[in-house]
What we know:
Blueprint: E1 2-6, H1 13-21, E2 39-45, H2 48-54, E3 61-63, E4 65-71, H3 86-94, E5 98-105, H4 120-150, H5 155-172, H6 184-189, E6 201-207, H7 217-229, E7 232-236, H8 238-246, H9 249-259, H10 265-276, E8 279-285, E9 289-296, H11 301-308, H12 310-314, E10 316-322, H13 324-330, H14 333-338, E11 343-345, E12 356-361
Parallel strand pairs: 1-4, 1-5, 3-9, 5-6, 6-7
Antiparallel strand pairs: 2-4, 8-9, 10-11, 10-12
Amino acid sequence: MEAGIVGLPNVGKSTLFNALTLSKSAASENYPFCTIEPNEGMVSVPDGRLERITKYIVPQNVIPAALKLVDIAGIVKGASEGEGLGNKFLSHIRQVDAILQVVRCFEDEDVIHVSGNVDPIADIETIEMELMLADMESVSAGIEKAKRSARSGDKEAILRTEVLTRCNAHLESEKPLRTLELNPIEKKSINSFGFLTAKPVLYVANVAEDDLEGKSPLVDKVRAYTEKSGAGLVTVCAKIESEIAELEPEDRGEMLDAVGLTEPALAVLARAAYKTLGLESYFTAGEKEVRAWTIPAGATGPEAAGVIHTDFEKGFIRAEVFTLDDLEEYGSEQEIKKAGKLRVEGKTYVVKDGDICHFRVG
């Protein structure tokens, strides 16, 4: 699973990506299309539960969950018709599982806005419209193809035609497909299209250095928009976050204190992106390592075991599970067993976020 960072040119998108992935690129110049190919990077997902576990189970290594991010070049109005590097960028968005849209919520006369003035809602609507137009084109082509197959009585094609027709009507009313209610079978029938507006979205308000709490009128507009649309919102100052990211770990605390933050805003963003993708973590814990493993919400025991190794899913026998609360109450896995709190779960068990698991395989 991966998330794509999108936005209009010069909103701080690549600055944010570089800070998140602790990387440097030539994409920091102040002009559009500086990122010709999407940059990819991995970012750790900070999780305080790992530190709590290691108070009782001391490992040689601690490995947090990780998230793949793709920095996609700036979209401009007309992208769906090939403006800028539109079609290429839209294809990159199609390949990701969620969209992190960076929205400029700061004024800076030295950083030119592509439309000439800072208006975050107009920016959001510009990108949303380009994605909807691209989806409408895909839907139109899909309907024609599905209708041809449906003439022979193909049941899947008949269903696909019906669902695509509903998608078309939804898009024509200028609503993204993520707001269209479809049952699991209907969703499966159009999965292959990779519709852009069906992807979950997290908005990232890039704020000025004196507005770290996001209290400016510009952020208020974005907040009202996201509350209405049901999307998530995270506030960051990409400029400050990039400076923090460049410091040695032991020096970051001092800068965080200086700007009034308890942790980098990027940590909040990474966790929010993880949630937007519908991901959760379970843990394995032993003397060798304490590790967070990434699973989609609703994964069963065998599916969770398969994240460690595909053979574990095939050979799954049972999962031995306890919670962090159990560990903190009893102090060790041995005492958890003595108290009868170690659960034995079978193949149908749905692993919960935060479970600490041992898998028995054959």
